[in-house]
């Protein structure tokens, strides 16, 4: 039996209550500014989001955290990644959104798969010495369950993309079928992103795109919003 | 290691007035004589002695502002990075602000020409009750074929620590590719501007007023403004020429000086 499969399916299920459901991470700004209007324009946007945000921040942080856990270099290095993720998110809403999702996932995953390392991380978050980010939580769970690094990376990227597509179905709006077709079309992109992440170093962490940052900042001042970021 | 240029500057307060109490420079970096545009605080103009940064150049700048001192720093002209066939150009900057000090660091734009690779690493340490204004403008240089984004890449890392704790990591990595003009990257624009302000009175109310003020004066500019984790803000904008970014940053500085420092605008008269 494939022991990885079912835990991964559960973690990446769009019904997994991480709170990601409420966040567009700047995409809603593009929807309101009529840059994203249909499936094609959304595909361009989410591809750029994967290439930049997910590769250089979330995905790379997940890989680095997993490697720190493997090496037993300790919690301080993990907290450094956690802090870099928090302070490199320049828009307050996105920064707080990521933090809330991270803390919520850490609590939930600790109930599902109790481990000393994740418990320690959550304790640091509670003591305000850590912030919380889903990238680290995925790494903790995967390392605890002995899920292969590249597998968890692909799964994490898939979960992020799938959740954004679900949100686009509501926000753009897109048809349900179009959303699912897009998720299939994104498979190659997710695979490439995972390979790219494997080539990067810690020096690359947090490199984000100016346009996306501005969109995340502008979201804070949109008069009517469907999403919290 | 030996640098192409080094500059080490220390400003401190003496009898109600900030003075440059020590200044060391060598190689391609130097400063002009401090100018007192305001009675009590000097303006320093950073100067690059050569025409610009070339292959393999490395620079180190340190600026320290002692407790209660107020220093203004700008450049005499834009910083130009030319092609770097074998080694990228690297510029490291360390900035320290003592208790209750003020540093306004507003350099001219960086211009990256064809085939340029440039690494800019800036670390800022800020103590309690101090005030820091910082700006940065990145522009693509003119290329033979008239196209933009001919530079190879620019990596800019800015880290700001407040009382020993990292509060901002702004990591811009610009590597022109097919999508450089597109969504989430340059959105069809060519120039990037940033203005950061850190002061204990920077709260939501201040940032809301600041935003309204900017939008009233520059209604059509593509800009975003948000709060930093702790008593600070960041403004980032995209445009198609330096002039508009410089105007907005000047306005941002003037607004912040008036509300946070109770001082009038500063006129640097460079040209």
From TrEMBL, chain A:
It comes from the Bacteria. The keyword Cytoplasm applies. GO terms for molecular function: nickel cation binding. It is found in: Cytoplasm. GO terms for cellular component: cytoplasm. Its main location: cytoplasm. Pfam families: UreF. Keywords: Chaperone, Cytoplasm, Nickel insertion. UreD, UreF and UreG form a complex that acts as a GTP-hydrolysis-dependent molecular chaperone, activating the urease apoprotein by helping to assemble the nickel containing metallocenter of UreC. The UreE protein probably delivers the nickel. Required for maturation of urease via the functional incorporation of the urease nickel metallocenter. Belongs to the UreF family. This is Urease accessory protein UreF. The gene is ureF.
UniProtKB/TrEMBL annotation, chain B:
Its main location: cytoplasm. One of its GO terms (molecular function) is nickel cation binding. It is found in: Cytoplasm. One of its GO terms (cellular component) is cytoplasm. The keyword Chaperone applies. InterPro entries: UreD. Keywords: Chaperone, Cytoplasm, Nickel insertion. Belongs to the UreD family. Required for maturation of urease via the functional incorporation of the urease nickel metallocenter. UreD, UreF and UreG form a complex that acts as a GTP-hydrolysis-dependent molecular chaperone, activating the urease apoprotein by helping to assemble the nickel containing metallocenter of UreC. The UreE protein probably delivers the nickel. This is Urease accessory protein UreD. It comes from Neobacillus niacini.
